[in-house]
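Quick log. Single chain, no ligands specified.
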Amino acid sequence: MRFNASNLLLKSTEFSIAQLVRRWAALGKPQDEAKKS
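-> predicted structure:
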């Protein structure tokens, strides 16, 4: 049980980090495109 719980926590943490990275990438793309043009 303990292993499963920590494994789930790790996966959810990785998922949260991935979501943040995607948000930052999405926010950065329009700015980069605006700078280029």
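The chain has a mean pLDDT of 84.
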